Amino acid sequence: MILHVDMDAFFAAVEQRDRPDLAGKPVIVGADPKGRGVVSTCSYEARRFGVRSAMPIREAFRRCPQGVFLPVRMEQYAADSRRIMEILGRFTPLVEPLSIDEAFLDVSGCERLFGPPEQMAQRIKQTILEETRLPCSVGVAPNKFLAKLATELGKPDGLTVITPERVQEVLSPLPVERVFGVGRRTAAVLESLGIRTVGELGRAPRAALVARLGPAAVSHMQDLAAGRDDRRVEPHRSPKQLGSERTFEHDVSDVGEMRRSLLALSGDVGAGLRRQGFTTIAVRLKVRTEDFATFTRAMRLPRETASDRTLYRAACHLLDASMPELPVRLLGVAACELRTGGEPVQGTLFGPPPEEVRAARVDAAVDSVRRRFGTQALRPAALVSKPKPPKAP
Ligand code: TTP
Ligand code: MG
């Protein structure tokens, strides 16, 4: 049996816990409501007004002007996340964190210690609530896909069990979009074939689907539609990527300004990699243009790196190679193929080239200054804003 745990309205719930006056109120966490960023998440009270994650924050303000808008306090959420993952680890070592607020647990064989899975799920919910004062939802099912689905069906504050006998009964009536990997475009193709529910998808003749969607996608979808999913819980999987992105105050057409932004973003990503002991072998650039069209471009690097400068160079290269339609609204840089336990960069005969060694030394020095004096203490000169020209006498 697999158990899936996902915190309810995570960032917003942390804010409501830390400020009891916000309990029961529409709380929206994200960017400045007058600015150009997006909603990270919102409380269930705000969801009644149609506010959703990733919605432009101004749209959220239009839908819910009485909402309480708060900035993201990532360090606090990360601290709560660590506590939650630690609690889960007391129940089984087979915990696979999926994101900051969600994890799979393989609970096969835990019955002797914690009773049947449903009882264990109840204890997990209760322990998390007692120790962090945050609500979560739990799903219990024979595999990952169904466990995550069970969590979603029960939200918020849910505990949903899908037993093997109930799989078809639960799956059949659901819209096809609930199947992982079926996005809007695939759903439209399926609809044109008269397929709207998971049950219809499971029964549809394979050949007709393959002609429109290709064999790999169809096998995947029909497996899930039948409730088949044999992915294991992988406890020691490291995160796949680490990125940073920024929405500009004003749409930007100036390439110099875009590069300065890439320099800052690469610095964030590099510092994050080094802090967590990762390197990356690939870099991805994300660009969102004025009309909200979003695209990404990635490249592999000749060798693993955690250096700001190497990340920055790759990001610039990707920007030059894919000059987007201007103006640009958002830029993001991500290290997208992380490695752990990489060799420390050394100047050996067959080691990395001298400029990489120098860059690593600079990064290490910068990191140690920032640890002592804060992240703003040292920045590339290009990012230090010029002093305002003196006023005319
Ligand atoms: P989710 O678990 O997707 O959402 P949630 O916990 O806020 O709400 P629920 O699970 O009850 O539906 O994401 C976890 C956190 O990740 C969320 O609190 C904020 C952050 N997040 C973003 O910053 N941007 C996003 O687009 C999404 C989906 C989440
Ligand atoms: Mg959640």
Number of strands: 13
Q: Can you list the ligands bound to this structure?
A: thymidine-5'-triphosphate, magnesium ion
Query: Sheet bearing the most strands, described?
Result: 5 strands, mixed
**Count of discrete alpha- or pi-helical segments spanning 4 or more residues:** 15
Strand order of the biggest β-sheet: 5-6-1-7-8
How many separate domains?
4
What share of the residues does DSSP label as strand, in percent? 15-25%
Which CATH class of the largest domain applies here?
Alpha Beta
Quick recap:
Helix content is 42%, strand content 21%. By secondary structure, the chain is α+β, with helices and mostly antiparallel strands. A 5-stranded mixed beta sheet has the order 5-6-1-7-8. Strands 9, 10, 11, 12 and 13 form a 5-stranded antiparallel beta sheet that branches. The chain has a 3-stranded mixed beta sheet with strand order 3-2-4.
